[in-house]
Write a structure and sequence with these properties.
- β6 and β7 form a beta hairpin.
- Strands 5-2-1-8-9 form a five-stranded antiparallel sheet, with helices on one face.
- It has one helix and nine strands; from the N terminus they run βββββββαββ.
- The chain is mainly beta.
- The protein has one domain.
- The N and C termini lie far apart (62 Å).
Length: 140
């Protein structure tokens, strides 16, 4: 098998890596408006239900940055999952009122009394590393 020589190794030049990227560290300690909340079920090893699913309140900021277009568009936003209260059968009961719960701490930090008031409030963002990726969540 013959290999075609395109250029000498000494002729190789450094080039910028292909594809777009966003440095999420730039959003650390920035204030952002919360755009939406939703109640979703997620898989949890701590769930006492047979299906190992837990109800959580998903809180998401407005979009902070985007790359790509159309179907390939990726939006970057801060988000966080807060545990909700469910019974042993998995039925959603409500939200925790204990001061030590993460949701209670978050609501106190943004100066509200109920989860219904979260949308439209401003919160600080925290950028954190997990493995080789950077994520954005809320500071509280």
């Amino acid at each position: 098998m013959e290999v075609e020589k395109i250029m000498q190794v000494s002729e190789l030049k450094p080039v910028q890596g292909g594809g777009e990227s966003v440095d999420l560290e730039q959003f650390d300690k920035k204030e952002v408006e919360i755009e939406r909340t939703s109640i979703v079920q997620v898989s949890s090893k701590f769930s006492e239900t047979p299906d190992k699913l837990s109800w959580v309140l998903k809180v998401e900021s407005k979009v902070l940055a985007s790359i790509g277009e159309g179907e390939d568009k990726i939006d970057f936003r801060a988000s966080e999952l807060f545990n909700l209260v469910q019974d042993k059968t998995g039925k959603l009961v409500g939200y925790p009122e204990a001061e030590g719960s993460n949701l209670a701490k978050f609501m106190k930090d943004i100066k509200i009394k109920t989860p219904q008031e979260i949308v439209g409030k401003k919160a600080l963002i925290k950028a954190y590393e997990k493995g080789d990726r950077t994520y954005l969540k809320f500071r509280y």
